[in-house]
Amino acid sequence: MADSSFDIVSKIDRQEADNALNQARKEVEQRYDFKGTDASIEWSGEAILIKANSEERAKAVLDVFQSKLIKRGISLKSLETGDPVAGGKEYRITSTLKEGISQEIAKKIGKIIRDEGPKSVKSQIQGDELRVQSKSRDDLQEVQRLLKAADLDVDLQFTNYR
């Protein structure tokens, strides 16, 4: 019998992220409490740039964006946000969307699988994802439950389940 396997990845649907940003932009333009605050949110290359005339307004725009991400099914673990920075008359917050699993996190996941998972399960780091293999599909499902329960600071998806 061939081994069963699945991949552990951390990916973001870019179209959904773009839709969330556009919805947040529309809401910021239309809401009464943002009138006259020069509040805006936009893509700046790969980063997301939030601007407003006060720190509280900038944080409020970020909050609107985060709520839109959640509604679109994107985990906030994928959003890396900096602190508000004063620049002239405006405050800016730069945020990025994290994709891929870093080597450090991949090693941590591998250690969790080795220490707490079923003994027949093997994990292997492949670039920015992990491949998990076992003869038993039940063991693979146990690993998925284990990783969902673990408090990792990265959003994990399980793909290529064979």
From TrEMBL:
A GO CC term assigned to this protein in UniProt: cytosol
Gene3D superfamilies with a match to the protein in the record: 3.30.70.860, YajQ-like, domain 2
Keyword Nucleotide-binding applies: yes
Alphabetic keyword roster: Nucleotide-binding
Keyword Chaperone attached: no
GO molecular function, a single term: nucleotide binding
Entry-linked SUPFAM superfamilies: YajQ-like
NCBIfam families xref list: PRK05412.1 (NF003819)
Protein task: Nucleotide-binding protein.
Annotated family: Belongs to the YajQ family.
Protein's recorded name: Nucleotide-binding protein FVP74_08295
